[in-house]
Amino acid sequence: MKIIIAGAGRIGLALTKVLSEEGHDITLIDRNADIIYNASNTYDVICVEGNATIAETLIEAGAETADLLIAATQQDEVNMVCGISAKKLGTREVIVRVRETEYMKQSEFLRNALGITFIINPEYECAKEISRILRFPSAARVEIFSKSSTELVEHRVRENGKLDGVQLKDLERLFRAKVLVGVVKRGEQVFVPNGDFVLKGGDTLEITGPSGEVRKFFISAGEYRRPIKDAIIMGGGRISVYLASLLIDSDIDVTVIEMDREQCERFCDLVPKATVICGDGTSNEVLLEENIHKTGGFVALTGDDGDNIVTSLYAAKSGVEKIVTKVNRDHYSEIIDKTVLESLVTPKNVIAQQIARYVRAMDNSQAGGMESLYRIADGKAEALEFKVSEGSKCIGIPLKDLKIRKDMIVAAIIHGSKAHIPNGSSVIAEGDHVIVITAAGRLNDLDSIIEGSAG
Q: Do the Cβ atoms of 194 and 200 come closer than 8 Å?
């Protein structure tokens, strides 16, 4: 597809990287000549220097024939004007980044009145991801499929724990739960394992199953952590506002520590049920005063990666049960010891993944339309949800006879509202939702899992 990205900040560049790797024709617009120069030398994309709200710039970028424009500058108003202009020029679909709470309250009106296809709020999406992790602290990351009937959770195998040395075909017998390990990351290697695969301490697992079965598995495996009752959030920015509201709605007590007094006052107005402390969240004296050693969860959300990492390490040393650390730079994910800080969240990647999911769905008009997409195992594998349409080649054939391609696995089948982990005799029916995990590259549709089909 022909895609225009307006704004070459963190999110714009993350989208440029992901969508160009997906094989789309990308044109990047930014007003900053240095940023455009660096992007042109880094990515195989067309770069246009200019103001994305001006028709001439959009025409130069090809808006008259573009399939999609993503407006991702730092300013909401610029994004909306850019989106409206592109739509008027002929761009088929428009995604607009909006950050202000007041605009988000009018999102339905803005979509209908301005012709915007999709409004996305990076801070809110990031807060939702963190909230899922805190509500299920046994996992390093939690993704949901098919209206929450099925979960995909990331978990690291403890050395000498109950999972260390277990053969996958024995999981259900040993732990009395119907789950599936779809991906194992061991060092830099990624496996889509079969039943003979033996788990080792240090492996990172991607586990799929119905929500109740996943919890049953963690309890039986001795890896279950009780839901937290309270949390400290360091930093009072937009993500913290959304996160505090989500946690309070889940009956979790929230304390926010923020240095800027004006920001504290604004936070109190926006989230009156939160306890707001005006102080330095990196100070161990402040954290001790707030009883960090008795706190269930700690979330580091300042704009400084170093402060977030160091304070999270202090929280771990203090015995906090669940810690989530925001980092903006990808390389930190590679150097941080995930046995200590297992839950890292990078906002730009959260949004890039969500928009890539939408773009993949736009690009697919064949049987078995994609509804969800998650990049897992540090981006080396994908978990996808397809709705099975009439005419799919997968309908009515037992999985053992389907000749599924190497490095792919059908992880779950959802029939109606009930999810189950399939076996060789399981059959896919029209209207089912099917979750596929692959380390073999891009899938456009469900039928691509069959040998000989195009990816």
A: no
CATH 3.40.50.720 fits 2-120, yes or no: yes
Which pTM does this prediction carry?
0.86
Mark 310-321 as b/e (b = at least 16 C-beta within 10 Å): ebbbbbbebebb
pLDDT digits (tens, 9 = 90+) for 182-194: 999 998 899 999 9
DSSP state of 231: E
Q: How does pLDDT run across 159-175, given as a tens digit for each residue?
A: 999 999 999 999 999 99
Is the domain spanning 230-320 CATH 3.40.50.720? The answer is: yes
Task: Please list the residues that pair with 438 across neighbouring strands.
Answer: 382, 408
**How many CB atoms sit inside 10 A of residue 146's CB?**
18
Spatial CA neighbour of 2 closest among 28, 24, 22, 34: 24
Domain boundaries, the chain: 2-120, 136-220, 230-320, 351-449
Query: Other C-beta atoms within 10 Å of 348: how many?
Result: 22
Q: Tell the CATH superfamily of the 351-449 domain.
A: Regulator of K+ conductance, C-terminal domain (3.30.70.1450)
